[in-house]
Amino acid sequence: MTLYMVCPYCNKEETNVIDSRKNTEGSSIRRRRECPKCDLRFTTYEKADIGLMVQKRSGEIQEFDYEKLYKGIENAFGGLDINDKKLKTLVDNIHNEIKTNGNKVKTEIIGETVLINLKETNKVAYLRFASVYKEFSDASDFEKEVAEL
Ligand SMILES: [Zn+2]
Fold first, then answer.
1. For a Cys-Cys bond, which of 59, 91, 103, 130 suits 134, CB 3.0-4.6 Å?
2. How many angstroms separate the CA atoms of 107 and 57, rounded?
3. Which residue ranges make up each domain of the chain?
């Protein structure tokens, strides 16, 4: 059987599957492959990727939107001193942290994770994000945060 998978050693485009086996639950398949050109062997794992799902306050579940997270954080930094690379690193760190909560996370968890990270990174961006996404229980909470700056 030949399935298209590039050889990691010589980059030949087709490699042969010499063994396939499912894990006990059947949720992943391990394939042992051999390159017909360089004869080296390697292993690939095939696994269903359902991605990260977000549960909104309403209970509705939707796919996690990286662009939306990026835009939200980018807006919080609008006019502040941060370059694209730093912003991307920050967003990726936040994204990775969110993923540690499993495949399904609540909107609140995402909001809190962003807030914690922004608080450490930039107080102004933090407050901007907070004022948009965090529902402060009352106005005095927000004023208290501002006063702490
Ligand atoms: Zn090869």
1. 130
2. 7
3. 2-47, 53-147
Give me the mean pLDDT over the 84-92 stretch: 93
User: Ligand 1 centre and the CA of 44: distance in Å?
Assistant: 14
Burial label for 4, CB within 10 Å (0-12, 13-18, 19+), is exposed
Ligand 1 mean position, distance from CA 11 (Å): 6
Instruction: Give per-residue pLDDT as tens, 25-83.
Output: 777 889 999 999 999 999 998 877 678 999 988 899 999 999 999 999 999 999 898 89
| Better pLDDT: 134 or 129 | 129
Contact 84, 92 (CB under 8 A): no
Strand (E) or helix (H) holding 65 = none
Tokens 């995402």 -> residue: 110
**Identity of the residue numbered 26:** G
* E-only strand ranges, 64-147: 104-106
Neighbouring CB atoms inside 10 A of 64's CB total 17
Token representation of residue 95: 């994204």
CA of 45 to the centre of ligand 1 (A): 18
Q: Kindly give the distance from the C-alpha atom of residue 15 to the centroid of ligand 1, in angstroms, as a whole number.
A: 8
C-alpha 47/C-alpha 67 separation (Å) is 24
